[in-house]
Amino acid sequence: MVELPAGTPPRRADARRNISAIVEAATRCLAEDPGVSMSAIATAAGVGRMTLYGHFESRSALVAVVVEHALDRAEAELSAVDVTGDPYDAMTRLLDASWTVTFRNGGLVQAADQALSPDLLERAHTQLVDRAKSVLRRGRSEGRFRKDMPLDWQVTAVQSLLHGAATAVHQGALTAARAPGLVTTSALALLAVPPAPSSGP
Amino acid sequence: MVELPAGTPPRRADARRNISAIVEAATRCLAEDPGVSMSAIATAAGVGRMTLYGHFESRSALVAVVVEHALDRAEAELSAVDVTGDPYDAMTRLLDASWTVTFRNGGLVQAADQALSPDLLERAHTQLVDRAKSVLRRGRSEGRFRKDMPLDWQVTAVQSLLHGAATAVHQGALTAARAPGLVTTSALALLAVPPAPSSGP
DNA sequence: CCTAATTCGTACGGTGGTGTACGAGTTGAC
DNA sequence: GTCAACTCGTACACCACCGTACGAATTAGG
Fold it and tell me: Do you know which PROSITE patterns this protein is assigned to (chains A, B) (predicted)?
């Protein structure tokens, strides 16, 4: 699940298992509460706090690994999306995949903000957003998406919807089953070319 | 600016001035960073930390007053909005006012979440959201807003847009001048009845 | 088995925030 | 001008968390 950097001595099986458990638990915990403590993460992973520090030098180091791992996974999922063909359909597919990523990672961004270097974060963000941007740009040039708003704002708006839905689900105000559909419908409504400005009576 | 509860002995002029300064500084600080320290708030208000504790028993007490104050102000601003007439226009006016409120208070909600009782928060939230809900409900029944999404989700979605725009402005990714227009356009696009699902070729 | 790797409890020092106590200095109000 | 109200620095106890040190028990792997 979690690859170790090459060049390090091979870990024992239980150690590798624990590292995986820690990273996965940390992802879950940080997604829910960016300020969660190391103790809580250790408990959630089913290991002692000391074991955690045995594998990760510091909170920052753990967050860095978690973010990198989440980023790799997100990158893999999003790059598997077919973004060709009709921009509407492409965006729909992209939104579905983005929903999964957003819901799984949630508050991770905020945790990363406090613990990681800004430029690293910037690159990570760019990497993920660029895909959506290019679909959006294509849809705009093909006349399928509205162009009367800055492209960056459209991206921000869609992200806001994703984030809002994820929060609502975490709070129990929305079921996880309905969320992706609602996000997609809403996002497309946001991006679609508006019907003629209804000049007549 | 900040009213004192009746029945307490009248404060001296400088005390009242300081209390106002504290509440206003706290509003600003908490809106930017919900986890800001009491020291930082005191400094921002131009008073010593001890003066702050002289007027507010605890962090919770301060947050409570700040929230109450912000709530009163928001209530006043939103209740002044004309929500009659065409639902589109009513919603536009409401969104403009909501933008101001959201931008000014920002992270206050998060600070309140950690410091105040859930039921108080619930009531506060309900109070503010109900107005939008009723406009939305009317617009839906009049066929001006789409009904194929839960009303609660539409509210959540619009709030997400407001919040996302506020964050973007705070980060400098969007100018405060453009934000309200973009939020309004986007929110209305979200709520509007979609153009016929284009069945024919 | 045997050994080295690994786990993990306890205990400690450091940091940063909250809230309290004391008290000296300052200033508004009458 | 006087006095009480107010300001505000310092100092302290307290707590939660981070990160380290030590060491004993456990366990994977040959």
Answer: HTH_TETR_2
